[in-house]
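Title: Prediction job returns without error message
Component: structure pipeline
Severity: low
Priority: P3
Assignee: unassigned

Description:
Job completed but the reporter wants confirmation the result is attached to the right record. Sequence as submitted:
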Amino acid sequence: CGLRRPRVAANPDAPSATGRRSCRCWIFDTLRNVSNIFVSHAAADKALVDPFVSTVLQLGCEVPKASIFFSSRRSTGVPSGTDLSSYVRGKVQKADLVVAIISPTFQSRPYCAAELGAAWGVTNKLFPILTPGMRRTDLDGVLPTLLTQYLDESEALDELHERVCNAVGSS
Protein backbone atom coordinates (compact mmCIF):
# COMPACT_ATOMS: atom_id res chain seq x y z
CA CYS A 1 0.00 0.00 0.00
CA GLY A 2 1.10 3.63 -0.27
CA LEU A 3 1.37 3.80 3.52
CA ARG A 4 3.87 0.96 3.71
CA ARG A 5 7.55 0.85 3.08
CA PRO A 6 9.74 -2.24 2.95
CA ARG A 7 11.25 -3.53 6.15
CA VAL A 8 15.02 -3.22 6.19
CA ALA A 9 16.47 -6.68 5.76
CA ALA A 10 19.50 -8.37 4.27
CA ASN A 11 17.48 -8.84 1.09
CA PRO A 12 14.45 -6.52 1.14
CA ASP A 13 13.13 -8.09 -2.08
CA ALA A 14 13.01 -11.58 -0.60
CA PRO A 15 9.49 -12.89 -0.03
CA SER A 16 8.28 -13.55 3.48
CA ALA A 17 6.97 -16.92 4.68
CA THR A 18 3.64 -16.00 3.08
CA GLY A 19 5.31 -15.38 -0.27
CA ARG A 20 4.77 -11.59 -0.09
CA ARG A 21 7.33 -8.88 0.48
CA SER A 22 7.75 -8.00 4.12
CA CYS A 23 6.35 -4.51 4.81
CA ARG A 24 5.63 -2.35 7.81
CA CYS A 25 3.25 0.54 7.93
CA TRP A 26 5.34 3.67 8.64
CA ILE A 27 2.34 5.39 10.18
CA PHE A 28 2.12 2.63 12.79
CA ASP A 29 5.83 3.01 13.59
CA THR A 30 5.48 6.78 13.87
CA LEU A 31 2.41 6.64 16.10
CA ARG A 32 3.86 3.94 18.31
CA ASN A 33 6.94 6.09 18.98
CA VAL A 34 5.10 9.37 19.50
CA SER A 35 6.25 11.16 22.61
CA ASN A 36 3.74 12.58 24.98
CA ILE A 37 3.73 16.02 26.54
CA PHE A 38 1.41 16.38 29.54
CA VAL A 39 0.35 19.94 30.36
CA SER A 40 -0.54 20.14 34.04
CA HIS A 41 -2.60 23.23 34.81
CA ALA A 42 -5.63 24.51 36.67
CA ALA A 43 -8.75 24.49 34.48
CA ALA A 44 -9.46 28.04 35.66
CA ASP A 45 -6.24 29.10 33.89
CA LYS A 46 -7.44 27.88 30.48
CA ALA A 47 -7.37 31.41 29.02
CA LEU A 48 -3.61 31.56 29.67
CA VAL A 49 -2.74 27.92 29.04
CA ASP A 50 -4.67 27.43 25.78
CA PRO A 51 -2.55 29.98 23.84
CA PHE A 52 0.57 28.51 25.46
CA VAL A 53 -0.29 25.07 24.09
CA SER A 54 -1.18 26.41 20.63
CA THR A 55 1.67 28.88 20.27
CA VAL A 56 4.58 27.46 22.23
CA LEU A 57 4.06 23.70 22.02
CA GLN A 58 2.25 23.23 18.71
CA LEU A 59 3.67 26.08 16.61
CA GLY A 60 7.00 26.80 18.30
CA CYS A 61 8.00 23.24 19.15
CA GLU A 62 6.00 21.56 16.35
CA VAL A 63 4.43 19.03 18.69
CA PRO A 64 1.43 17.41 17.01
CA LYS A 65 -1.90 17.69 18.81
CA ALA A 66 -2.01 13.91 19.21
CA SER A 67 1.15 14.10 21.34
CA ILE A 68 -0.23 16.61 23.84
CA PHE A 69 -2.45 15.86 26.80
CA PHE A 70 -4.18 19.09 27.78
CA SER A 71 -7.39 18.43 29.67
CA SER A 72 -8.98 21.83 29.03
CA ARG A 73 -9.45 21.07 25.33
CA ARG A 74 -11.88 18.43 24.25
CA SER A 75 -9.63 17.30 21.43
CA THR A 76 -6.61 16.74 23.72
CA GLY A 77 -8.29 15.87 27.02
CA VAL A 78 -10.19 13.04 28.64
CA PRO A 79 -12.67 11.21 26.39
CA SER A 80 -16.31 11.29 27.51
CA GLY A 81 -17.32 8.34 29.65
CA THR A 82 -13.75 7.65 30.80
CA ASP A 83 -12.74 7.41 34.46
CA LEU A 84 -11.01 10.76 34.98
CA SER A 85 -8.56 9.76 37.72
CA SER A 86 -7.21 6.60 36.13
CA TYR A 87 -7.01 8.21 32.68
CA VAL A 88 -5.07 11.24 33.93
CA ARG A 89 -2.80 9.07 36.10
CA GLY A 90 -1.99 6.93 33.07
CA LYS A 91 -1.24 9.97 30.95
CA VAL A 92 1.12 11.39 33.59
CA GLN A 93 2.91 8.04 33.91
CA LYS A 94 3.34 7.66 30.14
CA ALA A 95 4.37 11.27 29.51
CA ASP A 96 7.88 11.98 28.33
CA LEU A 97 7.64 15.49 29.76
CA VAL A 98 5.20 17.12 32.16
CA VAL A 99 4.95 20.88 31.82
CA ALA A 100 3.37 22.20 35.01
CA ILE A 101 2.00 25.72 34.56
CA ILE A 102 1.92 26.91 38.13
CA SER A 103 -0.41 29.71 39.17
CA PRO A 104 -2.00 30.61 42.50
CA THR A 105 -5.07 28.64 41.36
CA PHE A 106 -2.92 25.62 40.43
CA GLN A 107 -1.54 25.49 43.96
CA SER A 108 -5.03 25.58 45.47
CA ARG A 109 -6.29 22.56 43.51
CA PRO A 110 -5.70 19.09 45.03
CA TYR A 111 -5.90 17.47 41.60
CA CYS A 112 -3.07 19.69 40.31
CA ALA A 113 -1.00 18.73 43.35
CA ALA A 114 -1.60 15.04 42.55
CA GLU A 115 -0.46 15.50 38.93
CA LEU A 116 2.59 17.38 40.12
CA GLY A 117 3.42 14.71 42.67
CA ALA A 118 3.18 11.95 40.08
CA ALA A 119 5.54 13.82 37.74
CA TRP A 120 7.88 14.88 40.53
CA GLY A 121 8.63 11.24 41.32
CA VAL A 122 10.32 10.70 37.95
CA THR A 123 13.73 12.34 37.41
CA ASN A 124 13.97 14.88 34.60
CA LYS A 125 10.34 14.50 33.58
CA LEU A 126 8.98 17.67 35.16
CA PHE A 127 9.32 21.21 33.85
CA PRO A 128 7.64 23.56 36.35
CA ILE A 129 6.98 27.04 35.03
CA LEU A 130 5.43 29.93 36.91
CA THR A 131 2.76 32.23 35.54
CA PRO A 132 3.47 35.96 35.42
CA GLY A 133 3.10 37.58 38.83
CA MET A 134 4.00 34.43 40.80
CA ARG A 135 7.02 34.53 43.08
CA ARG A 136 9.13 31.57 44.08
CA THR A 137 8.41 32.47 47.69
CA ASP A 138 4.70 31.81 46.96
CA LEU A 139 5.34 28.12 46.24
CA ASP A 140 4.02 25.31 48.44
CA GLY A 141 4.78 21.62 48.91
CA VAL A 142 7.76 20.27 46.95
CA LEU A 143 7.83 23.28 44.63
CA PRO A 144 10.17 25.47 46.72
CA THR A 145 12.88 22.81 46.34
CA LEU A 146 12.58 22.72 42.54
CA LEU A 147 14.28 25.11 40.18
CA THR A 148 11.33 26.85 38.55
CA GLN A 149 11.24 29.15 35.57
CA TYR A 150 8.90 31.97 34.58
CA LEU A 151 6.52 31.71 31.65
CA ASP A 152 7.24 35.27 30.54
CA GLU A 153 11.06 34.88 30.36
CA SER A 154 12.64 34.12 27.01
CA GLU A 155 15.39 31.99 28.58
CA ALA A 156 12.75 29.78 30.21
CA LEU A 157 10.96 29.34 26.88
CA ASP A 158 14.28 28.50 25.20
CA GLU A 159 14.96 25.84 27.83
CA LEU A 160 11.42 24.52 27.50
CA HIS A 161 11.82 24.35 23.71
CA GLU A 162 14.97 22.31 24.14
CA ARG A 163 13.34 19.95 26.65
CA VAL A 164 10.28 19.47 24.42
CA CYS A 165 12.47 18.83 21.38
CA ASN A 166 14.49 16.27 23.35
CA ALA A 167 11.28 14.60 24.51
CA VAL A 168 9.80 14.35 21.02
CA GLY A 169 13.09 13.68 19.27
CA SER A 170 13.20 16.74 17.01
CA SER A 171 15.67 19.57 16.62
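Comment from assignee: result matches the submitted record. The chain is about 35% helix and 15% strand.
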